[in-house]
TrEMBL record:
It comes from the Bacteria. Residues 109-131 are annotated as: Disordered. It comes from Nonomuraea ferruginea. This is DUF4115 domain-containing protein. Residues 114-123 have a biased composition (Basic and acidic residues).
Length: 131
């Protein structure tokens, strides 16, 4: 019984040494290659991100109440915004109400909307991009 255990221990040690040698060679060969990454050629067209129906960015220290809702449906936003904060919505049609149009930058379907006057309330509906 002792001889069988000894044979198994020697066989396991030999297998471990073989695996270490194979792993070491593979690691050494991968580090030895000159090309860090093969040059990629793009055969498939690049996919562009969808354009939001409306994107609102706060450009003042605080932007008073900004409301965005689906006509006849859910209210998506009804709150103040802080400087640098931006929100984007992709619904097919949206109603937007801005308490102070001079404090936000609004983009409709990728097109910049003219900025309103400071203190002016602005309400408008935005339809999604034509398909």
């Amino acid at each position: 019984m002792g001889l069988a255990r000894l044979a198994l221990a020697v066989l396991a040690a030999a297998a471990l040494v073989v695996l270490l040698v194979i792993g070491g060679r593979a690691l050494f060969d991968s580090l030895d290659t000159e090309d860090a990454a093969p040059e990629r050629t793009s055969a498939t067209p690049t996919v562009t991100a969808p354009v939001p129906t409306v994107r609102i960015e706060c450009v003042a220290a605080t932007c008073p109440l900004v409301t965005v809702r689906v006509p006849g449906g859910d209210v998506l936003q009804h709150r103040e915004m802080t400087e640098g904060e931006e929100v984007s919505y992709f619904e097919p049609e949206l109603d937007v109400v801005i308490s102070d149009a001079g404090t936000v930058r609004v983009t409709e379907n990728g097109t910049l909307r003219p900025r309103g006057e400071q203190g002016e309330r602005e309400a408008f509906t935005v339809g999604g991009p034509p398909e």
